[in-house]
Amino acid sequence: MNTALFRFNRLFWVILMVHGTVVFPGSTCATDLFTEEIVLRLITATAEAIQDDAPGTFSRINAGEHPYQNSDNPALYVFVYDTEVNIVAHHDSALVGKNFKSMGDVLGKLFHQEIVAGAIRDGHGHTIYAWKKPGLKKGRRYKKTHYRLVTGSNDKKYVVCAGIYIGLRKH
């Protein structure tokens, strides 16, 4: 196992123990039980894995393997764009290979473009957008997605992303 991924897994469990919380797989209480620090560490670990083995890492992300989609909290996952705003890795295989350049959030914000442009310009950053959260019957949640530009083992540039829901707003 990649040492960065091992450190990430260990950090995730330490934070859960410090907060005195026990989470069972499939539990609805697990939703959003992670911090921005965990999101950033997952992005870093994923970026390092892509630098070492881009095709293998993309395969593991697309398969929904832990930690790329956290087995205890599926709301914690990474996804990866190329510099043309195509999804190259995501646990939802229906999204892989699709271009999201002209797709906006529920308010029309072209956040996919913003993420990739920000990564190319600054190397890393975050954006906030409105998104329908799975399992939420009414309203929308705002999601803060962090991103980082990385050069893969195949010398291509990619943008590694992961996010956290930050608030509730009803229609």
The gist of it:
The protein has helices at 3-18, 36-62, 111-122; strands at residues 79-82, 87-89, 124-131, 140-151, 157-169. With 171 residues, the chain is an alpha+beta fold.
Keywords, separated by commas or semicolons:
single chain, alpha+beta, 3 helices, globular
Tell me about this structure.
The protein is an alpha+beta fold and 171 residues long. 32% of the residues lie in helices and 23% in strands. It is built from three helices and five strands. The chain has helices at 3-18, 36-62, 111-122, and strands spanning 79-82, 87-89, 124-131, 140-151, 157-169. The chain has a five-stranded antiparallel β-sheet with strand order 2-1-5-4-3, sandwiched between helices. α1 packs across α2. The longest helix is centred in the N-terminal third of the chain and has 27 residues, at 36-62. The chain is globular and about 40 Å long. The model is unreliable at 10-31 (pLDDT under 50).
How large is the share of residues in beta strands?
15-25%
Radius of gyration: 15 Å
Specify the biggest β-sheet. Answer: 5 strands, antiparallel
* Low-confidence spans: 10-31
- Helix percent band: 25-40%
Query: Count of helices?
Result: 3
